[in-house]
Amino acid sequence: MHDTLPHLAATDFPPLRRRSLDTLQVNLGYRCNQSCLHCHVAASPQRTEAMDADTVALVLQVLRLRRPATLDLTGGAPELNPHFRYLVHEARAIGLRVIDRCNLTILSEPGQEGLAGFLAAEGVEITASLPCYSPANVDRQRGDGVFERSIAGLRQLNALRYGDPSSGRVLNLVYNPQGPSLPPAQGPLEADYKRELQRHFGIRFNHLFALANMPIQRFGSTLLSKGSFETYMTLLRGAHRTENLDTVMCRSLVSVDWQGGLYDCDFNQMLGLHASLAAGGGSPLRARPHLRDLLHTDPSGAPIRVAGHCYGCTAGQGSSCGGALDAVDADVSAAAA
Prior knowledge:
- By secondary structure, the chain is an alpha/beta fold.
- It has 12 helices and 10 strands.
- The protein has helices spanning 5-8, 53-66, 84-94, 115-122, 135-142, 146-159, 186-201, 217-226, 229-238, 266-271, 311-314, 330-336; strands spanning 16-17, 23-27, 70-74, 97-102, 125-129, 171-175, 207-210, 253-256, 262-263, 303-304.
- The protein is globular and about 50 Å long.
């Protein structure tokens, strides 16, 4: 796999500083039951990295002390970590909103038969990957049979009243473009998803998040192999919108890797760009800050490490773990693409 960091490190992306901590995003490991082309984590069934019990306990210490509003669990498939259910239960007992970044097919994996019921009982918010409502497009990006298994997972969640606005059980879907292009406007695309999934499969959900593909890891390596990396970067830079800088996710989020290392976002984590916890322009506490540093250091005010891939979050309507940063009309998105 090609290393994309040398192509991203030198950048004119504007400097940013952190605000108060609202979300602790924890990557529980890189093992996954899928191997998706666009995956910025390069997760797969062959990966073995997984957060251990001691680090999970440290996550809970930080949550009890810092009291962010949200614990955002990701991977790989976070549910494959043996401590996933314990962490979810304890975080919910603290009173935190918990998000599970679910690929849907995990719900039908052997040993995960009770997973959907557990998530419903704990009141976990599910953000589920479904890059298209077309079977052919999903299987092309994620593997044969993935669409059918994803629909089965969605039906299982709907049976538990996920996606029903009156139930409080939130089910959001995630769209990624098939290749090196910006996602279309989120609002109209959400309407298309809701219409097509209801019409053909009887599926309901709450919101759609349209995310740009990041030029890192597996997707970035593919771009380099095809000679289209710089073309994609030109697209991202050309579609940069300064107003999106105010709401990028790194302003209020700290990303944690499976060993407890700290980063400004999940993308920086994959590039090995460690966070700096120093506020006011001072020197960082250490080159590689760790979760335990959050027990005695408030990350507010610290500078955020930026590189060329950051344009993926500010291009067009913007892109974050919660979808578009700004509602723009379809003409703007189409022009950027």
